[in-house]
Model the fold of this input.
Amino acid sequence: MSRELRLRIASALVLGVAVLAATWAGGVWFRSLAVIIMVIVHYEFTTMAEASLKAPLANAIGWLAVLATAVFILTGLPSMALAAILIGAGGASFAGVRRGGGLWSATAVLYAGFSGLALAEIRGDGLSGLFAMLFIYAIVWTADTMALFCGRALGGPKLAPRISPGKTWSGAICGAAAGVGAGVGTALAIRQGGGVAVPLIALVLVIASVLGDLFESWVKRRFGAKDSGHIIPGHGGVMDRVDGLVFAAFAAFVLGNLLPVAGPAGGADELAARLLGL
Done:
């Protein structure tokens, strides 16, 4: 085993334990994790886009919005966090319209802000939020792993050769099937049931995860970056690790607000109950 592979495995284990521990604890611990992810993702995005050079005022407005969003997430004020994200993105776009680059600052605010807000709101404080996050982890991590191995083993036509040459249709299909299976299995273990909605929701989350991966690959290709950053030994940046997860979390966040609820009412717990039909 090469030194680089050992480093990747060690980093993945440490990160996995930290993420699962914060997920288990919930409350302020997981909200803090969501905020850390949001801030680092915004930093990596704006650094790749050179936002501070191209549109310094737009970049400053974006940072103020992200920091305000962080405060509102930590204090349990999701409506205020949403307002900060939208106002910050609008302000950054307007401030950078003359020099260019404002659109990228606005995109960074939306991407990072909604990532942090969706994660924090899905987990919440209750048991249903824990189940919902485990459901999402099972789908995204399984789909990503199987897509990698099946894509390498089977090969075939590329999924999006101009954006991410390494991804294949065979990998995407195998990953989707495995992700849906993992989601159904997790739901069955949690609630000893399932229903037709669970595999459909799992499929939507798999598709969102793939789109998130492709979006991040497109951003890196757009700015000529191999990795989003270098903060994680052997893996690159935080965006490189959470690109699929945050898109899936946002899709789950939207679905959770659209689906009917059959469980307890109240904030994030209701959101998670809607997602899993608890």
Summary: The longest helix spans residues 127-154. The CA atoms of residues 144 and 175 lie 6 Å apart.
